[in-house]
Amino acid sequence: MKIALLPNLGKKNAPQCTQEIITCLHTFGMQVWMRAADRQQGFAADCWQTDFYEMLAGCDAAIAVGGDGTIIHEARHAAIAGLPILGVNTGRLGFVAGLETNELHLLSGLADGTYTVENRILLRAQFETAAGVQQVDALNDVVIARGALSKIIDFQVGLNGTEMAHYRADGLIFATPTGSTAYSLSAGGPVLDPVMRSFLLTPICPHSLTSRPVVFSEDACLTVRTFMNADAKTYLTVDGDSAIPLQQGQQVSVSRSPYTAQLIKLKQNHFYKILNQKLGSI
């Protein structure tokens, strides 16, 4: 079995954890493929690849080492390659991680096939640019929100080609079930079981007594236009990555992505047990 090992070596304890994972994988008879950029760290990988997607195409599974941000980032790439991925947590919460650093002995389950794969939907945001239509996929959330100035924004939201609602708020969060426990939860959104085939819209600080989060089916297509004062700015962010500036009245469509993230589970603890462990009582 070939494993693409994807560590975020800037994370504390990640280099040491990466070496321990390599040792475990070799012990269990698996090969380790890594990015050529990580070669200078002296890891005992079996294969070094300069082409990232070629490396993923040649492997049977991937392991991401880092915090939630790292695991989510690499899971998006793995989804495009159709590859199952396991997260090993060296960050704080590690909500989407499958293993903690003291559980690496469970990697034997990859070799003997005693693991399950949990499918998670992704969202796709599409918008027009000077170069044409641009699209980005998200495992957690797509956020459209104001910039540094405290200026409220008007949002016109449509559903499947029909006008649905108008919001005055600091922003809107479009979250997958996986992302329902992230930014959306902090903004008052509900917790969705991560294997549900749906997504939700959560307004950020709405100027209304009645604005509430809304859950949509996986087949829904939402469109958003933003309207703000001339000196205000609005940005689109995907899974907390770099912000993309939006123009006055620019339309963004949000729908389910054709890709699916396949998260490897080596333990049998259920979602709500993890929720209680990571975030406290529900």
Automatic annotation (TrEMBL):
It is found in: Cytoplasm. The active site is at 68 (proton acceptor). This is NAD kinase. Belongs to the NAD kinase family. Its EC number is 2.7.1.23. Pfam families: NAD_kinase, NAD_kinase_C. The keyword NADP applies.
